[in-house]
Amino acid sequence: MNSRLVFALALIATHALAQEAPAAAPHAVFDRHTPVEKIAADPDGAAVLNKDMPGLLTHPSYSDFKGMSLRQLQEMSGGDMSKEDVEKTEADLMALSQAPAAPAH
To answer: Does residue 63 surpass a pLDDT of 90?
Structure first.
């Protein structure tokens, strides 16, 4: 009887290991029309903004423009934020949607 218990436990353990891990949640899709605060609320999105647009999230006026999209900011920037900057940032943000979301801490 003891060997049957060991066999049953081994079978259960093998089955559990063979199970695939649950699929990771898809990542949110961000683009040039997404409000900056929504992008910044996602750790991966914030990382893209910090890489592609350093200083944006720490700007003294962040609270004034955080509800605006990158496109709106580019239009209002007077040339400080180029179309190319926004396109590069958008491409990096769109690449996030191809990867699973980072786990919440």
So the answer is: yes
